[in-house]
Amino acid sequence: MPLIKWLLALPHYLVLLVLGIGTFFVVIISFFAVLFTGRYPRGMFDYMVGVHRWAFRVIAYTDLMVDPYPPFTLADDPSYPVRFDIDYPEQGVNNWRPLVHWLLVIPYAIAAYLIYSLGRILVFFAFFTILFTKRYPEGMFDIVRISLRWLARASAYENWMVTRYPPFEWD
Q1: Residue ranges covered by each domain of the chain
Q2: What is the pLDDT of residue 4?
Q3: FRET label pair with 13: which of 55, 64, 95, 109, CA 20 to 30 Å apart?
Q4: Residue 121 exposure: Cα atoms within 13 Å on the Cβ side
Q5: In a 3-state reduction of DSSP, which class is residue 9?
Q6: What confidence tens digit (pLDDT) does each residue in 102-124 have?
């Protein structure tokens, strides 16, 4: 399976490309909605969470972290081993966030990118390890998992889906 998982994920990449175009428009509309109303429109928020959820399932699948094929859904699937969920900010979002959030996320995004790059390198080595031993080394798996977690936190914060700054914690 390590040899063909990327090929099996092609239908997901095509759907995620279309969904990604949708997220572009959702980000623009939600920018103005938050700026003027202080609320992230619930449907748009759920859409963004769903796209992130789907993308991280596919990333975990192609990174050889899970064996079950990812479902074609934006909804949460409790039976799938990869979970991604963000609570809707019921109290609203500060109106100023869309204006400066992109600036605030830069330090965390740089750190997340570096950690995610380390994860990509480890996936390459894990591929050969899995190919010959049929096991994902636990240490490598943990670092790749952490790199995905950092990426998810940065992405959620930069799209003002969460208001709390992501922690600079390894795990």
Answers
A1: 5-158
A2: 83
A3: 109
A4: 6
A5: coil
A6: 899 999 999 999 999 999 999 99
**Does residue 95 surpass a pLDDT of 80?**
yes
Q: What CA–CA distance (Å, rounded) separates 75 from 55?
A: 12
- Residues 26, 17, 82, 110: what is their CA dihedral angle, to the nearest 10 degrees? -70
Tokens 């998982």 locate to 5
**pTM exceeding 0.70:** yes
Contacts of 98 (CB under 8 A, 6+ apart): 30, 31, 32, 34, 35, 160
DSSP string, 26-88: HHHHHHHHHHHHS---HHHHHHHHHHHHHHHHHHHHHTTS--SPPPS-SS--TTSS-------
- pLDDT tens digits, residue range 22-45? 999 999 999 999 999 989 999 999
> Measured between alpha carbons, how far is 157 from 143 in angstroms, rounded to an integer?
21
Residue type, 63: D
